[in-house]
Amino acid sequence: MVEQSLKEAEEKALHARRHQGIELYPGGPVDRYGPPRDPSTLLLEPHKLTREERWFQIFFVAAPWIFFLCMLSAPILLAQYHVKKLGERASLARQVAEELMETSDADFFRLCTFQDLREIVEQPLHAFLCFLHPDTISSQVVAPLLRDVASLFKRLGIRASVALVDLSAGVPERMQSELPAALAPHGQLLLPFAFGGQQAAVVDFAETWTAAEIVKAVAAEVPGAQAAMAHTQVRNRRTLARRRDGRKKTRVSRRNRGN
Question: Where is the composition biased (Basic residues) (predicted)?
Fold first, then answer.
């Protein structure tokens, strides 16, 4: 026991002297390989390293953070770039679609079967699709209403068509459950290419079957339709005001003649 305790004391004394030698001679050959004076420091003391070692120490400490930031920012920058390009492509496609819509010639009113829908989908115009069955009373009532709506679109210059689709024949089985003939009519607004996305899209018409609601639903999607309707309303108000003024003048002139 005594010998063991003496050996431990000698080892502690030697360790203390070694450590004391390192501290007493900073920058010496032994101090270069010793632990840093501040255990929380990230870099070794400059006096322990050569000039080249100091540069490499900074490089190897900073390089992982630089690569990490690059890996973190690269997907974000790529996503922003592609979103910007997709937005430019969508705006260009919409511009082309609007030009085609203005220059294309299409029927404002059309009676067709389910197989003829492909032609309507491929046209560059908005279309209000009415799926009806000739045996239902509601279909018989809505059909002439939609003809008048199509005439109204043509008169106002709204580039949209109305298509009546007959459900009495040629309807696929998978569509019979979605468009039951007994519940006809069914309304959908067809948005052409670049207005409904990369492909044509449809929006279900769930409003009341009145001319005002149909025109409002179509005008909300067709470019320039709101302006055309507003111009027509202003013109109608001016016409009504002129008629009222004319009636007042006629009454005044009649009174003057009577007197």
Answer: 234-259
d(Cα 166, Cα 80) in Å, to the nearest integer? 47
Confidence of residue 230 (pLDDT cuts 50, 70, 90): low
Q: Token pair of 159, please?
A: 């580039």
CA 82 to chain centre: 14
DSSP string of 206-236, one letter each residue: -S-SSHHHHHHHHHTTSTTHHHHHHHHHHHH
pLDDT in tens, 140-173: 888 888 888 888 888 877 778 888 888 887 777 7
Give kind and range of the element (H or E) at residue 203.
strand 201-205
pLDDT above 70 covers what percent of the chain?
Answer: 68
pLDDT in tens, 210-220: 877 888 888 78
CA 39 to chain centre: 54
Cβ pair 30, 48 in contact under 8 A: no
∠ CA 206-110-161, rounded to 5°: 55
Count the Cβ atoms, other than its own, within 10 Å of residue 169: 8
Tell me the C-alpha distance between 49 and 46, whole Å: 6
Among 37, 55, 160, 162, which Cα is nearest to 112's? 162
Q: Could you tell me the two tokens for 170?
A: 């040629």
| Residue that has been written with the tokens 């490089």 in this structure | 59
Q: What is the CA radius of gyration of the chain?
A: 42
Nearest by Cα to 124 from 177, 33, 190, 58: 190
Regarding predicted confidence, which is higher, 140 or 67?
A: 67
- Domains of the chain in start order, with CATH, are 21-103 (no CATH), 109-237 (3.40.30.10)
